[in-house]
Amino acid sequence: MGSKEKILVAALLLFNRAGTRPVTTNHIAKEAGVSPGNLYYHFANKQEIIREIFSQMSSLFDKITPSGSILPGSLEALDQAFRQITEAEWEYRFLQKEMVTLIEQDPLLKDLFLERQNARIVGIESCIRAMIELGLVCSLDEAMIGRLTQVIWLVAIFWNPYLMLKGEPVTRARISEGIELIRLVISPYLVAEKTAAIMSV
């Protein structure tokens, strides 16, 4: 593993453990086993490190949802996507918890976030359309597809901040509850005979 990768691994570990505010570049360099000068060779500041980690997370989500969309060919494929999303959100949980604050502090990160947000929203809409075509979801008009897409995205992006506002810990189990909420959002629109299968996977 090269020094750049070591820095990113160390930063992710520290950010997940303590949040971004108390962690300095010196802390990251020490955890990575590199000199501060080596760290600054790769990254000008902590914000650049956070942006790179955000790009890593985005790439991971792209692998879960190719071309920004989940196209479930089966209930098993849909369930696998839910599980992979849960694990990805846990791996990058500091971003899930602090994203609103971080993008307010860093305009470049905000631009990256908005770009990826648009891709994710398109992906959710594509998923809904695919489920309609597969007969998993009942026929919906364009306005309803748009509203359902928005609600799913809002649950996905704000579940972790909601837990924090309540003073509750963001654990893997609590992240899974957010995924279950998305299932509940979808459930009223499922074709009747598919409802039990999707809600139980």
UniProtKB/TrEMBL annotation:
Keywords, in A-Z order: Coiled coil, DNA-binding
Annotated HTH tetR-type domain residues: 1-61
A Pfam family of this chain: TetR
Entry coiled-coil feature ranges: 78-105
Record feature DNA-binding region, as residue ranges: 24-43
GO molecular function terms noted in the UniProt entry: DNA binding
UniProt KW Coiled coil keyword: yes
Protein name: HTH tetR-type domain-containing protein
Organism expressing this protein natively: Candidatus Lambdaproteobacteria bacterium RIFOXYD2_FULL_50_16
Taxonomic classification: Bacteria, Pseudomonadati, Pseudomonadota, Candidatus Lambdaproteobacteria
